[in-house]
Write a structure and sequence with these properties.
The chain is mainly β. The protein has one helix at 2-6; strands spanning 15-17, 23-28, 31-36, 42-43, 48-53, 58-62, 67-78, 87-90, 94-106, 114-116, 122-125, 131-136, 144-145, 155-157, 161-165, 173-174, 182-187, 191-195, 203-204, 214-219, 223-227, 235-236, 243-248, 252-256, 264-265, 272-277. The chain has a 15-stranded parallel sheet that branches. An 11-stranded mixed sheet has the order 4-3-2-6-8-10-13-16-19-22-25, with no helix packed on it. β3 and β4 form a beta hairpin. The radius of gyration is 18 Å and the shape is globular.
Length: 278
């Protein structure tokens, strides 16, 4: 009994309500912890985030060589009027997000709905095949990917029903207007509907001249619908941007460019090359 009482108390796979305050998840060399509001850090290797809020946000930080694991389960976060990112990832490591139930993320100006700022990979998955995500970026932000200072690259979707809509000048999935290009994007499963904002690709580059290009987009499975706006491609470059190294080897893919953009390839004035479609 004395031995048992001396062991540390750990909360594994606890449920956290976003309505009770901001949530920060940190994956470090010593394990993963969750902090909410002004509370203490609690050990939690698989936190489940639920609830609704119009002011609180989620930050998922993965330190170098670490992977953060988080489940969104019926989370509805709309901070579009607060000028924040509903959910953002940070750090040098990788982030895995599992989808359970229906989830909705809506962010404010210059932020992506699900904003990728971590250097490693962001993976969205649905192992139980019961989850969905509706992610909408604010002006200049992607639906999923880059915000005003985000990476917009190294994104994998392996499952779930995912609807991603970019704000003005933001891709559905990929780059934004100023923070990041839409490179290294992989879809291997799920039902995906990605819509670009003004002059932005459905999957790929944003609408700004410095972040319009996209490369290394791979689709190997799933039902994927990608729609570009204005002069952008459905899959590939934003307005004037190039879409290169695009590989489609499986799944069902529907790609529709804007008025002057290719379905797959470059935006108006951009190049399209290195395609492999099987």
């Amino acid at each position: 009994l004395l031995l048992l009482s001396s062991l540390p108390v750990s909360a594994l796979a606890a449920t956290w309500d976003i309505g009770k305050g901001d949530i920060t998840v940190n994956a470090g060399s010593g394990g993963q912890t969750v902090t909410q509001g002004g509370g203490a850090a609690v050990e939690d290797n698989a936190p489940v985030i639920k609830g609704s809020s119009t002011e609180n946000t989620v930050t998922i930080n993965a330190e170098k060589d670490q992977t953060a694991n988080v489940t969104l389960s019926g989370a509805n976060i709309d901070v579009s009027s607060a000028g924040k990112a509903a959910v953002s990832t940070t750090g040098e490591g990788n982030v895995n997000i599992e989808l359970n139930g229906s989830n909705a993320l809506k962010s404010g100006h210059s932020h992506a709905g699900l904003e990728k700022n971590n250097d490693g990979n962001l993976t969205i998955q649905d192992k139980d095949k019961d989850g969905s995500l509706n992610a909408k970026g604010g002006q200049d932000g992607a639906g999923i990917g880059g915000g005003s200072s985000g990476a917009g690259s190294d994104i994998t979707i392996s499952g779930g029903e995912v609807n991603a809509s970019g704000g003005k000048s933001g891709a559905g999935i990929g780059g934004d207007s100023s923070g990041g290009k839409g490179n290294n994007i992989t879809v291997s499963g799920g039902t995906i509907d990605a819509k670009g904002g003004e002059h932005s690709a459905g999957i790929g580059g944003g609408g700004n001249s410095s972040h319009k290009d996209a490369s290394k987009i791979t689709i190997s499975g799933g039902d994927v619908k990608a729609t570009g706006a204005g002069s952008a491609a459905g899959i590939g470059g934003g307005n004037g941007g190039s879409g290169t190294d695009i590989e489609i080897t499986g799944g069902k893919v529907t790609a529709t460019g804007g008025e002057q953009g290719a379905g797959i390839g470059g935006g108006n004035g951009g190049n399209g090359s290195l395609f492999r479609i099987v």
